[in-house]
Amino acid sequence: MGLVAPGVIILLSAAHGQEILPSVKAIVTVMPKPSVLDPQGAATAEAMKHLGLENVGHVRVGKSIEIELPDGADEAKLHEIARDLLSNPVIEDYTIQINH
Q1: Which among 21, 49, 52, 71 is least buried, having the fewest CB atoms inside 10 angstroms?
Q2: pLDDT tens column, 30-56
Q3: Integer distance in angstroms from the first to the last C-alpha of the chain?
Q4: Global pTM?
Q5: Domain extents in the chain
Q6: 44-83 burial by CB neighbour count: b if 16+ within 10 A, else e?
């Protein structure tokens, strides 16, 4: 198989052979809700101070998930997956950024 350019998804199917689709990158950022204590963020802030960044302010630690999808993918389904699978809606908020 040859090299594929970034931003391209190749779908393989027995019935139709190869189908090349333009793709988009969705970045789901999951962060603790502002009302939730973030001990990892507090520990990171303290470590930064010990490493010489004296004036560090409040630090929150979250996660970022990059997802490559075919262009025109169901954005409502992506929100459902971000809410139900990638985050815990009780203690975390998420945002989705789609880069075309």
Answers
A1: 52
A2: 999 999 999 999 999 999 999 999 999
A3: 25
A4: 0.76
A5: 22-99
A6: ebeeeeeeeeeeeeeeeebeebebebeeebeeeebeebbe
